Amino acid sequence: MSEAISKVLDELFSIGLKNVLIVDGYSSEGTLDIVKKYAVSIIFQHGRDKAGAIKTAFEKVKTPYMVIMAAQKRLPSRNRRMTE
User: Fold this and answer.
1) What is the rounded distance in angstroms from the CA atom of residue 26 to the CA atom of residue 40?
2) How far is the C-alpha of 25 from the C-alpha of 43, rounded, in Å?
3) Is residue 9 classed as helix, strand or coil in its secondary structure?
4) Which residues contact 28 (CB under 8 A, 6 or more apart)?
């Protein structure tokens, strides 16, 4: 998964996103070492599983919108609309 997160972050920054929050679930794959190379905010998850990560993000995020992605997911190709 640590390789996947760098690809996801590269894509997010390539489309101009700047306010990226990483919610780490105490991963052991070296994820933190990778994300520390990016201009992102990092917090540690409260609770368990994806629900705990989402709840933790809601407690921290103050913007009027939020996109939730799992690290192993990739953004659609630039040739596809995100709403498809």
Assistant:
1) 17
2) 9
3) helix
4) none
Q: What's the Cα-to-Cα distance from 8 to each of 46, 62, 71, 83, rounded to whole Å? A: 23, 22, 7, 18
**pLDDT for 7-65, tens place per residue?**
889 989 999 988 999 998 888 778 889 999 999 999 999 988 888 999 999 999 999 99
Predicted pLDDT of residue 84: 45
**Cα–Cα distance between 17 and 19 in angstroms, integer?**
6
Q: Calculate the dihedral angle through the C-alpha atoms of 12, 72, 80, 9, rounding to the nearest 10 degrees.
A: 10
Q: Which of 11, 46, 3 is nearest to 25 (CA)?
A: 46
Do residues 49 and 40 lie in contact, with contact meaning Cβ atoms separated by under 8 Å? no
pLDDT of res. 50: 86
Task: Calculate the CA 48 to chain-centre distance.
Answer: 17
